[in-house]
Structure prediction request, 253 residues.
Amino acid sequence: MSNDWTDKKMRSICNFLVNSPKGTILLTFIDTLDISKTAIKVFEMIDDIVKQVGEENIVQIVTDNAANYKAAGEMLMEKHNKLFWTPPAAHCIDLMLEDLEKKIKVHELTIMKDSDDKPAMGFIYNEMEKAKQKIKANFKDDRKSYAHIWKVIDERWEIQLHRPLHAAAYYLNPQLHFSFEFRANREVMRGLYKVMDRMLDDEERDKIDLQLEEFKHERGLFGFSSTKSMRFKKTPIDWWESYGADTLELQKI
Prediction:
């Protein structure tokens, strides 16, 4: 994860942070004042960090959503075929709200952003849908009243925030997967299998495809009462760490 900022001495600094189940740490920072901000230079800068950390240790790279960073992210995905680049969810949601404010008066719209106690990756897909349904209810299900609001949300979601990783995280989140509202629709399943195709070789993919059945049908460790009762008492990451021993390949995702 990287972000640019300017300090009190007007130096242009790019921070590189590493996020893992153990938390977020500052890995390093680079003074970018004398570095050209062309896409290729940004790509080279981030690619050096990927080499330092090790491609095998990285799933997702999150950067600024500016055109040069977006292009650099696409270059990184082309070079490193198991990595995903995404823009920051919080920034995309802020832009979405700005779009709404320009066109309509928004009384109440809450969409989850990153937080220390509830990582956004496993919840953002569901939160977007909940926000849309709340808007629909506020307008008493009158499609003519809420359709233009949904259109603004959907446009920003499709252009910037809708990523296969979000769909896969939604599917594998035990708090959501076993809820009454969970829907494994075409969009979700395509996202899940895109992640599997990109991150896994054929043998791993076949194993995980079978292990998904164990998870979906609550077999083995997934069927114990304690496993079910802890779905909302542990974070999804901790839950998988505790109860994914029967499906180790799936657990690693």
